[in-house]
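Lab channel / #folding
Pinned by the channel admin:
"Please post every new chain as: sequence first, then the structure tokens as a reply. Keep commentary short and put observations after the output so the thread stays searchable."

First post following the new format, from NK:
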Amino acid sequence: MRKIITILLAMLFLLAFTGTTLAADSSESELSSTPPSTRYVYMTSVEANLNIVSSTAYMSAEINCSAIVDSCSISAYLQRYENGAWVNVQHYSKYSSTNYCSWSSSHSATAGYSYRLRVYFYAWSGDNRESTVVNAY
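Reply from TO:
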């Protein structure tokens, strides 16, 4: 009986560390513009926004990280839906040597198309990287 309990505890212990490792090992997960409360090691919050007003796409993104983070970055793609696929219209990037990064820009938008902002967020602590992707519509 004691051996069975020991094995079960060992399995639970391994599963607990596997989940933490996946979150810290450069995993990318596709999220909506307001991501659910996913547990990250380095990122405390990410946000992406897209508003189209009078044929202009107004875009912004922000990443907040824990104090142990050395640097973070934002890589954003304004995309247009054409012929059944998302096509890159414009690429933007911003790097920060702190634990916070924000970005905003605007671009002309052609009437009659659907647009999205696809944003990749990265956080580094030493040689370790954490990342996620957020789509804003």
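NK: Strands lie at 30-31, 43-53, 56-65, 71-82, 85-96, 100-108, 115-125, 128-136.
TO: also worth noting, The chain has one helix and eight strands.
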